[in-house]
Amino acid sequence: MPDTSHYSLEVINLSCFRNDRLLFSEINFSINSGEILLIEGLNGSGKTTLLKMLCGLRGYDEGTINFNQQNITQLDSNYTDKLSYLGHKNGNKAALTVKENLRLSSNLNDNIDSDFNAIIKQVGLAKESDQLSAQLSAGQNRRLAIARLIISQHPLWILDEPFTALDSKGITMLKELMINRLQQGGLVILTSHHDFELAPFTVRRLQLSKQETV
Amino acid sequence: MSGFFLLLKRDLILANRNRSELFNPLLFFILVSTLFTMGTTASPELLSKISAGIIWVGALLASLLSIDSIFRSDYEDGCLEQWLLSSHSSSVLVLAKIVAHWIITGLPVIIITPLLALMLHLPTESLTTLMLTLLLGTPVLSLIGSIGVALTLGLRKGGMLLPLLILPFYVPVLIFANNAVQVSASGLDASAQITMLAAILVLAITLTPITVVACLKLSVE
To answer: What value of ipTM does the predicted structure carry?
Structure first.
């Protein structure tokens, strides 16, 4: 079902220390339905850490993260129900086939009526649908992880270097999926080392090293 | 509850596809028990006295050896983050993982025990008690072990730390189980010890999942 409600994610004065070292401080931004935010920064500037905080997977030292004006720590599963996270690790089980992997993650997200074959075809894994994930290439495993994004149909996408290992066709496909998500009122937050544009949407940028929104 | 059965089924399918995970703890258990008879004088009198202890220590080590894999593969391939963020309660999913671990490693040990008990000259009248203590005790081993694994998951070289961390917590289970078998061998009623083991199991089932989820969230940071 297309989700037409409006969502907002707001980050206020977020700071993070790691091993007694200030990683970033006073991060402020807010992003609404139909907006895309690119988090930029050098290696080790805390991009992944910030994304994990946004997912609620990691605690933070100072600040607040609000989803629809409510603190995400209080929302708990009402928040995780709205978000899909794609990290450095794909989250595919090597000993399960493409189809089994998809079925499992869709069941874990309570979407039982998904058309697996169509989605597998959409990400370009039609020939491999009965192969074990262990036999897939790095790029194909990435495509499988992207199929999970489509299946979950969550409005908020948090993507950590999503273009890694993808070929040019894969990159185009993922960009189209993002546009589609944004047009349906979704929110996308991502990190990427590639120069990244997503016409017709304006990509907002957050520099972590300078610690300010542009 | 559906999330529970989903993850349980997945783990059993994975174990079935990776048979070594299924048979290694069992083979280890059989080997340890056999080594004891070779290492001591194999007199029936001595064996009948220590057989319950041998079987229990064997079961305990088998559980300890296999417990590290419980969250390891999910952690390494990123599935852990995915199911922590799924719409199901994380503690229910953790319980499913633990139950799966027990079915894969604990249950085969219990099934083979009567055979080993025969080999180790366990007094026949205490076999039922031994089986009962294993049935109540081995799930506790999986539960306590999973806390240790969740705590050490983020460490690169957790290897030796894990046994040092969780073995002391296995001691109460071992004491009550062994005492139950000894009491029943001398013809007395062991229901007090059995009840105590059941109480430990209930306590562990209730509190472990919440603790494990907290530890896992620290590990995925």
So the answer is: 0.84
